[in-house]
Design goal:
The protein is mainly beta and about 650 residues long. Helix content is about 0%, strand content about 60%. The chain is built from 3 helices and 41 strands. It has a 25-stranded antiparallel beta sheet that branches. It has a 6-stranded mixed beta sheet with strand order 1-2-7-8-5-6. It has a 4-stranded mixed beta sheet with strand order 25-26-30-29. Strand 39 and strand 40 form a beta hairpin. The longest helix is centred in the N-terminal third of the chain and has 5 residues. It is globular, with a radius of gyration of 24 Å.
Length: about 650
């Protein structure tokens, strides 16, 4: 089993490139200048939790808004960020699957329950601002997930696990060859009675376990058109239901996504795609004092549409030039009802709007012997339109009807880097970049309640703008040993934060900036069948604020730990026997902007044991949080939520050789 490693330049070969059916265009040689990190398929499919978001935590500095995974967090809290740039439920990192943005068009969260690790071949994480396709929104970095290729997929595969709290996790796939291409159809189902997220001394008669139930189905077809061209099409449907803290506090998310991608590997290489997303979200808020329904966010339909075209014209053997255009359109509407203690509807609210970005980009990697120079620019036109907030009485009489002014603008961003191979053992790199992110429809128009805190929306929010520099080196002092070190300074101007404006009331506001500086270290060592992978990030983040939010100046941003670390020790023999242990540490962080509520540091240990029992059949035992460490995921004035306790799994996996 192997895991993350610093990604260096593509290896040189004397023969023609080997093309794997279903793969993207080759990685440009300048990408390692930005300190990218890779996670391979073996690591993705052998984590104790069986969840993509937890594998991503192998890369220190990766975090979601809460310290919970997608079994026990509200779906709208699954925003992804890097480098401790501040707690925000919207994603500050751009997450792509086969080049398609995954973020929800309304909320900006990532639907992790729709991602199955066995359907992926690899992940590449690049921290820092992005300038390539869909670069708008990549203020913290870019996470690129690639679907499993023909080389990864057995004709038939599947797994079935039973775990703690009556949990069931099953998956199955068939991947036959169809003509010169292939079709892969897969499904996944999981459920569990869950654990109590509420501490014993805070439970009431309404307290229940964090139950979950979700399923997803997908199909991916890859059809060669000629020797250099292929069409890749993907469709997925998913449903996710969770109960958090109180009986009746149910949330759901759902989606139907489709995309089509054209890859041409000729003299003029082409990468073109189009996608559509239809998503929905519901959430019911239960009073902690009366145990009655207080708010029913009963419907939040949203649609995302987008596409890109990227061309790589022939400009000589020393250059890889990419030029192109992309567009993203998002629209969504919130429908919610507020309830009195008597159970009667008091107010019906509707809010929503539209956002869009349309950009042109150009990027070139220039190889000069041992030196690779890379630079790219983007120009984006953005819009925020048709925003509204409306309230009615239970009988339909309008009491509030606000229409917000349309806004638009143009943003220019870019990045540049250099990679110097001083020797076979030493590579030096440096980079600088800018980036921006639009506020999401959720941040602009949707208030939310997590007892006892109400967070207000803010239709006047401005853009977040990033400026950053970094430098580092990659060492391979001996065969099987690699170390990467990166120092960085990032300034996120206009950062959107949940700012306290009254007791138990916060509002989304732009603060002057969040400044993050720190060091990231990755390391890998292999000896025969044994491997050790490690990652550590130190992030010194501070808020810069003035005016109405001046009290936050110099504070650590909410949900931003200074120290994170991860390490995986793995052994795998040729017969299929395997053993791995993964330790993760997350340092102390604050729940709120005023640094009053502490989330203590924690360290967990996970383990996986694999034992082959027959041809293509393996028995797998998994253990999460083996030491049963207490993880506090929320602390609002002493009202506590807990994260995943010890969970044990046993199951079987079927997986023949890939075809």
């Amino acid at each position: 089993m192997s895991a993350q490693q610093a990604t260096l330049a593509e290896p040189e070969t004397d023969g023609p490139d080997i093309v794997v059916l279903g793969s993207p265009l080759p990685l440009p040689p300048g990408v390692p200048a930005y300190g990218s990190v890779s996670i391979d398929r073996d690591r993705l499919t052998n984590d104790a939790s069986g969840r993509v978001e937890n594998v991503l935590s192998d890369v220190a500095g990766f975090q979601q808004f809460r310290r919970s995974d997608s079994r026990s967090a509200n779906p709208s809290a699954q925003g992804v960020t890097l480098r401790a740039l501040g707690g925000n439920a919207s994603s500050r990192a751009l997450v792509l699957l086969d080049g398609v943005p995954l973020a929800d068009p309304f909320f900006g969260y990532i639907p992790f329950n729709a991602l199955s690790p066995d359907r992926l071949s690899s992940v590449r994480i690049t921290r820092g601002g992005g300038a390539g396709a869909f670069g708008a929104g990549a203020v913290a970095g870019t996470i690129e997930l690639a679907s499993a290729t023909r080389a990864d997929l057995p004709r038939v595969a599947g797994s079935a696990f039973y775990g703690s709290n009556n949990a069931v996790e099953t998956s199955a796939s068939v991947s036959p060859d169809v003509g010169a291409g292939y079709l892969s159809v897969a499904g996944r189902f999981e459920r569990g009675d869950g654990f109590f997220t509420t501490p014993v001394d805070q439970r009431t008669a309404a307290t229940v376990r964090a139950r979950y139930r979700d399923w997803s189905g997908q199909a991916r077809a890859v059809v060669p058109i000629d020797a250099q061209t292929e069409l890749q099409a993907r469709a997925v449907v998913f449903r996710d239901n969770r109960t958090l803290r109180f009986a009746g506090a149910d949330s759901s998310s759902s989606g139907e996504d489709a995309s089509v991608r054209l890859i041409h590997r000729g003299t003029w290489a082409v990468d073109a795609l189009a996608y559509v997303q239809a998503r929905n979200f519901t959430n019911r808020v239960i009073s902690a004092t009366t145990s009655r329904l207080t708010l029913d966010q009963r419907n939040t339909p949203a649609t995302g549409i987008g596409g890109k075209i990227e061309l790589r014209p022939p400009v000589g053997p020393d250059h890889v030039l990419r030029i192109g255009a992309d567009v993203r359109l998002g629209e969504g509407t919130l429908y919610e009802d507020a309830y009195a203690a008597t159970g009667a509807v008091t107010t019906r609210r509707t809010a929503g709007g539209n956002t869009s970005t349309a950009g042109l980009f150009a990027e070139d990697d220039w190889t000069l012997g041992k030196l690779v120079l890379t630079a790219g620019v983007r120009g984006d036109r953005w819009t925020i339109t048709d925003g509204f907030f409306r309230e009615r009485t239970r009988t339909g009489a309008i009491t509030t009807d606000r229409r917000f002014a349309n806004r638009d603008g143009v943003e220019a961003t870019g990045r540049a880097g250099a990679l110097f191979h001083a020797s076979n053992a030493v590579a030096l790199r440096a980079a600088g970049y800018t980036g921006f992110r639009l506020p999401t429809l959720n941040e602009l128009y949707r208030p939310f309640v997590v007892f006892p805190i109400t967070t207000q929306a803010n239709a006047a929010l401005g853009l977040e703008r990033l400026r950053g520099v970094e430098g580092g080196f990659d060492l391979t002092p001996a065969r099987g040993i690699s170390v990467g070190v990166t120092g960085f300074y990032n300034r996120l101007g206009g950062a959107i934060a949940n700012v306290t404006i009254a007791p138990n009331v916060r509002q989304r506001q732009n603060v002057d900036a969040i400044v993050a500086r720190g060091v990231e270290v990755t390391a890998r060592a292999t000896q025969g069948q044994l491997s050790l992978d490690g990652s550590y990030a130190f992030s010194d983040s501070k808020v810069r604020a003035s005016g109405a939010s001046a009290q936050l100046d110099g504070y650590i941003p909410a949900q931003s730990p200074r120290h994170t670390a991860s390490a995986t020790l793995a052994w795998q023999d040729r017969r299929g026997f395997g053993l791995s242990l993964t330790g993760r540490h997350v340092g102390k962080q604050y729940e709120d902007d005023l640094q009053t509520d502490v989330l203590p540091a924690f360290t967990t240990l996970d383990g996986v044991v694999s034992v082959p029992v027959a041809a293509h059949w393996t028995v797998v035992a998994r253990g999460e949080n083996l030491t049963d460490t207490t993880i506090i995921t929320r602390n609002a004035g002493g009202s506590i939520d807990l994260g995943t306790p010890r969970r044990l799994w046993i199951g079987v996996r079927l997986g023949g050789p890939a075809r």
